[in-house]
Backbone:
């Protein structure tokens, strides 16, 4: 067993900063209204002397201008689970620990390569998403968690060296039960190594079985006992904009972020998305939905963004937008398009499916289609948009252009080249037709497919051209 | 200036332009019309290029000209895109010409989007042929299509009104269709060969 731990010390702050790239001082505050304290501060704020644990009133005395946002527990929990879904890409065993994600990677390494390579891949993913993190690997999940709080990038690959690595960890960072952390330093015991050297019997008498179980989980004598994370079957991401947006172009940046998050989530799930809704939320619960439907599942962030942007361009905002929400319920399996090894097409070729999506995104959902024939003999209904086309080939002459509605023939008498072919059908559904179809040559020399009432040969109506 | 330079060294150094047009490789995109193939320098449509077809009116045999090519491409399961056709293609009629309609994509585009859609299709590299009916295409727009056809290695066909004949065009091939009663084709420009002096008659399909 080898567990990797990704420790996210600034989860709440990063979740806000990634959609608000600000240089000015920013702090998150929490606590009762009359005693707000700082729980997180960005670099600019720390440079100005603000620190975690400070009262908001004290901070205001130090610095005249800074942004203070409330610490939002629900959004922190959402980001935490979202990042677990991203990590799910690397392992099937992912669990959530306070401010951290642990994943079992001993089996993943045969796929992704040895630990240093796997570590750099995970780090690149998290850095791209804009979350600061620290990582460590250890044979037990809890040990990896503790190592991240002490240092960054430590990798303990065997159980023999684990005991040694834990020796020097101070008690305050050991994440043992709270009563032990409070009492042990006053007994002169300052590191984990000293605790583990103490007789177990005495420890149990003094601190209860809880401390021993925690120690055993650290060294791997007890299983970690963690609930495994399972990614949900739907993706729902909501972000609140910091001010009211009236212009579509100001939505592009947050939408891009959301789509990238969706792509990261889909990659973790090894799935694709076929349909999703971008909900633009207005005041008082009103909203505008921008549905995005694709012909085949996709998961590439750049493509999804392009399609979404194409649809967003067609929307006129009725009122200012306060928040954005991305909801994807239809998450089918994704099968990457295969390409021939000896494919002669240019290397930058775009597959026909993606080309169709690109055209649909700009021209509308119904603008790209194929035609197929139907068994109906009426020319108006003999073809419709379909992906399949089979059946026998029509023995009678048919034009190459079909007019959407027949037009009367003008000019002199036509020359009849072929016909008549009588079409008399449709009495059962109200669309009855009774016509004689001829191939005619008009006085201008064009060949047309025209019909008239049975046995009349006057009142010609042109229905198609033999182009 | 007494140095005597032999002619062959000058030629080998490629400092003298000899005024010979580059050879046009014989392509494998026959039009399906034997008389037309015989006069075209590439023995068919110019490969990965724009071909312009000029018409006096819609429905004078322009589809008959390209349907054999479309039939050949779709039967080889290669996609063909039709952008903004003036009328609906009649499935039964196209199938009579041997076109496999499963490989024909039809794109309805507004006037301002026709050129954009055509260029996207050509550039994608996944279409064997793209047919377009643009209304307002100037020299620059056609040049873009020509470049897109080269980069996407696709056949591009643009159908335009005959009134555009007097304007220069970057297309590799320009054909002018003459309406019945004397249906015939004039080759107005063909890259890599002399323009034939005579028109080619286009036999109509007998019904």
Residues:
């Amino acid at each position: 067993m080898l567990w990797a731990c990704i420790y996210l010390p600034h989860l709440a702050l990063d979740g806000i900063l990634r959609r608000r790239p600000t240089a000015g001082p920013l702090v998150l505050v929490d606590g009762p209204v009359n005693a707000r304290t700082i729980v997180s501060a960005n670099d600019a704020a720390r440079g100005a002397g603000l620190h975690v644990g400070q009262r908001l009133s004290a901070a205001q005395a130090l610095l005249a201008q800074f942004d203070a946002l409330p610490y939002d527990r629900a959004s922190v929990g959402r980001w935490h689970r979202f990042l677990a879904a991203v990590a799910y890409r690397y392992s099937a065993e992912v669990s959530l620990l306070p401010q951290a994600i642990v994943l079992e990677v001993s089996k993943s390494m045969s796929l992704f390569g040895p630990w240093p390579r796997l570590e750099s891949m995970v780090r690149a993913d998290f850095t791209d998403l804009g979350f600061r993190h620290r990582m460590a690997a250890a044979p037990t999940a809890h040990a990896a968690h503790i190592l991240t709080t002490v240092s960054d990038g430590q990798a303990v690959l065997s159980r023999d060296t684990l005991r040694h690595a834990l020796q020097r960890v101070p008690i305050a960072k050991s994440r043992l039960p709270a009563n032990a952390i409070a009492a042990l330093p006053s007994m002169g015991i300052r590191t984990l190594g000293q605790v583990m050297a103490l007789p177990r019997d005495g420890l149990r008498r003094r601190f209860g079985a809880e401390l021993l179980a925690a120690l055993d989980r650290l060294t791997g004598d007890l299983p970690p006992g963690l609930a495994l994370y399972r990614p949900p079957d739907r993706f729902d991401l909501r972000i609140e904009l910091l001010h009211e947006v009236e212009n579509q172009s100001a939505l592009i940046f947050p939408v891009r972020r959301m789509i990238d998050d969706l792509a990261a989530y889909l990659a973790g799930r090894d799935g694709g998305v076929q349909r999703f809704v971008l909900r633009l939320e207005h005041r008082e619960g009103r909203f505008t939905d921008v549905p995005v439907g694709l012909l085949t599942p996709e998961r590439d962030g750049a493509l999804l963004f392009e399609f979404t942007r194409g649809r967003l361009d067609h929307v006129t905002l009725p009122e200012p937008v306060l928040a954005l929400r991305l909801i994807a319920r239809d998450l089918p399996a994704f099968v990457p398009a295969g390409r021939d090894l000896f494919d002669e097409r240019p290397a930058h070729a775009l597959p026909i499916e993606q080309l169709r999506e690109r055209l649909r995104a700009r021209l509308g959902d119904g603008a790209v289609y194929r035609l197929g024939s139907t068994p109906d003999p009426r020319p108006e209904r003999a073809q419709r948009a379909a992906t399949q086309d089979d059946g026998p080939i029509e023995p009678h002459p048919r034009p190459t252009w079909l007019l959407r509605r027949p037009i009367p023939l003008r000019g002199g008498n036509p020359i009849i080249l072929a016909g008549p072919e009588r079409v008399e059908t449709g009495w059962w559904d109200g669309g009855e037709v009774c016509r004689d179809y001829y191939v005619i040559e008009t006085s201008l020399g064009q060949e047309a497919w025209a019909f008239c009432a049975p046995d009349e040969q006057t009142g010609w109506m042109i229905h198609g051209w033999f182009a | 200036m007494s140095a005597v330079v032999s002619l062959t060294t000058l030629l080998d150094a490629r400092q003298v332009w000899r005024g010979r047009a580059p050879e046009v490789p014989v392509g494998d995109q026959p039009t399906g019309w034997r008389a037309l193939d015989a006069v075209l320098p590439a023995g068919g449509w110019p490969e990965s290029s724009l071909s312009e077809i000029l018409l006096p009116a819609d429905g004078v045999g322009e589809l008959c000209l390209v349907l054999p090519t479309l039939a050949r491409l779709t039967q080889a399961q290669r996609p063909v895109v039709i952008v903004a056709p003036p009328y609906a293609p009649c499935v039964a009629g196209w199938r009579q010409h041997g076109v496999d309609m499963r490989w024909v994509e039809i794109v309805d585009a507004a006037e301002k989007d026709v050129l954009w859609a055509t260029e996207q299709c050509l550039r994608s590299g996944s279409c064997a042929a793209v047919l377009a009916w643009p209304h307002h295409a100037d020299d620059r727009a056609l040049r873009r299509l020509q470049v897109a056809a080269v980069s996407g290695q696709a056949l591009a066909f643009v159908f335009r009104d005959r009134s555009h004949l007097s304007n220069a065009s970057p297309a590799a091939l320009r054909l002018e269709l003459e309406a019945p009663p004397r249906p015939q084709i004039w080759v107005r420009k063909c890259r890599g060969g002399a323009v034939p002096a005579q028109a080619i008659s286009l036999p109509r399909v007998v019904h």
About this structure: The CA atoms of residues 166 and 289 of chain A lie 53 Å apart. The longest strand of chain A covers residues 287-298.
